[in-house]
Design goal:
By secondary structure, the chain is an alpha+beta fold. 25% of the residues lie in helices and 30% in strands. Bound molecules: 2-oxoadipic acid and magnesium ion.
């Protein structure tokens, strides 16, 4: 099968909310090919009128690497069709086996020309917010290899971003909690994201440059989850609260 054919399988799995078997077991491909499958799969979304709105980092915390058994940082693309309004609704039937995880999101205010050093990064950011990422592996049983998950756009399915706050250099020790209705389901710290979420944005500038996909003004960058992801169910309000950054929430319907 060609990379283009594999990208159609993943796009159709997402569109129809039907899981597919892990691709790499029957069609082994390299990490380089995996990023090409991802690019092609996202192109199908763009062909349907969506826009790229940013990118996401994955496996930037120990908790996530352990939970999924993958130990390399990965990145994926975020599109307009994935954005859910803060306080809005997420339609459960559009997903396969969705999970939610607590994140921090950066808003980019100037085109990023290449890899940017940690200490220079704040010139490119005009907002930071609490966020929830909804991940929904297109693979059966949420099981994948590094190559599979990269091809599958790093499981990204939806995101909810809370109110923007002025960027602060010191976001490296903020408590982060995820609640389902009033119940706490996960608790971590922004320190769990590479020691400092700014380091995740730094890595994003490096990877975006390496893959020739520059980060543009107006993009959002999700830094990766601080804790395990938890399965969500209909009739639940999902809320992520981050110390100093308020909260982001949505209702699963
Ligand atoms: C892959 C996506 C990882 C994160 O924040 O670490 C990710 C997955 O867990 O299915 O989004
Ligand atoms: Mg994530």
């Amino acid at each position: 099968m060609t990379l283009a054919q594999l990208s159609i399988i993943l796009d159709q799995a997402a569109l129809s909310a039907n899981a597919v078997p892990q691709l790499s077991l029957t069609h082994p491909f390299t990490l380089h090919d995996a990023y090409e499958i991802q690019r092609l799969a996202i192109q199908h979304r763009l062909d349907r009128g969506e826009k790229v709105i940013g990118l996401k980092m994955g496996f930037t915390s120990e908790a996530k690497m352990k939970q999924m058994g993958v130990h390399d940082m990965i990145w994926g693309r975020l599109t307009s069709g994935m954005m859910v309004e803060d306080g809005g609704q997420l339609n459960f039937s559009a997903f396969i086996h969705p999970r939610a995880e607590p994140e921090i999101c950066f808003r980019i205010c100037r085109d990023i020309p290449g890899e940017v050093a940690l200490k220079e990064l704040d010139q490119f950011v005009d907002g930071i917010a609490a966020a929830v990422e909804v991940i929904d592996s297109r693979f059966e049983n949420f099981k994948f290899s590094l190559e599979d998950v990269v091809a599958d756009n790093c499981s990204s399915a939806a995101l909810v971003v809370g109110p923007w706050h002025a960027p602060s250099r010191t976001i490296n020790d903020l408590s982060m909690i995820q609640l389902f209705d009033e119940q706490e389901v996960a608790r971590g710290s922004s320190a769990d994201i590479l020691g400092d979420p700014w380091k995740s944005l730094q890595a994003a500038t490096r990877l975006a440059t390496a893959y020739g996909e520059p980060i543009k003004a107006g993009y959002v960058v999700m830094a990766g989850a601080a804790t395990n992801a938890e399965f969500i169910k209909p009739n639940t309000r999902v809320t992520v609260k981050v110390e100093n950054l308020g909260q982001a929430s949505f209702k699963v319907v």
